[in-house]
Amino acid sequence: MLPDSTLHARSLGSCLLNIVASPAYLQRHGSPKTAEDLAQHVLVGFTHVESLNQWPLRHAEGDRLSIKPVISASSGDTLRHLVLEGVGIACLSDFMTNDDLREGRLVCLLKGANSGYRQPIHAVYYRNSRLALRIQCFLDFMQEKLAGYIY
């Protein structure tokens, strides 16, 4: 249960996070070799959610690197499009970037430094409503369908 007692969160699974950039960005700015090299790059991150700006990279101070994005947005899809356009480097979920990586539109960076952290994915909903049973059935359906994409 969440602090607002009318809201509930249900875990749907988790996903890996990848540090990605477009080939065009890397051609213009070069590829970072270490987590510390990211300080010399344009980092694209999330607005107002500090935990999403802690990238899963091993470095001298631990397994999570806090970044200060030069450009930020509240939507992962918006960040993905910015990265595809060559604006900068971002940390995005594997289910969001797998097709782009496979097709060569994005390049995965710093694989050896990735700590393997899995980002939890939750559905948040009002439980005390007449729709609660329908919502639970929908979430059961979604969890089954997402099984191949998130773990």
How is this fold's topology laid out?
Elements: E1 7-21, H1 23-29, E2 43-46, E3 54-55, E4 65-66, E5 71-73, H2 76-84, E6 89-93, H3 94-102, E7 107-109, E8 118-126, H4 132-146
Parallel strand pairs: 2-5, 2-6
Antiparallel strand pairs: 1-6, 1-7, 1-8, 3-4
Protein name: Transcriptional regulator, LysR family
Domain LysR substrate-binding: 3-146
GO molecular function: DNA-binding transcription factor activity; sequence-specific DNA binding
List its salient traits.
Transcriptional regulator, LysR family; D-Maltodextrin-Binding Protein, domain 2; 151 residues; six-stranded mixed sheet; 28% strand; 4 helices; 8 strands; alpha/beta
Number of strands: 8
H/I helix tally: 4
The largest sheet is: 6 strands, mixed
Question: Which H/E pattern describes the elements?
Answer: EHEEEEHEHEEH
Question: How does this model look, in words?
Answer:
Pfam families: LysR_substrate. One of its GO terms (molecular function) is DNA-binding transcription factor activity. InterPro entries: LysR-type_TF_proteobact-type, LysR_subst-bd. Belongs to the LysR transcriptional regulatory family. Residues 3-146 form the LysR substrate-binding domain. The chain is an alpha/beta fold. It has a domain at 15-119: D-Maltodextrin-Binding Protein, domain 2. The protein is 26% helix and 28% strand. It is built from four helices and eight strands. The strands form two sheets. Strands 1, 2, 5, 6, 7 and 8 form a six-stranded mixed beta sheet that branches. It has a two-stranded antiparallel sheet with strand order 3-4. The longest helix has 15 residues, at 132-146.
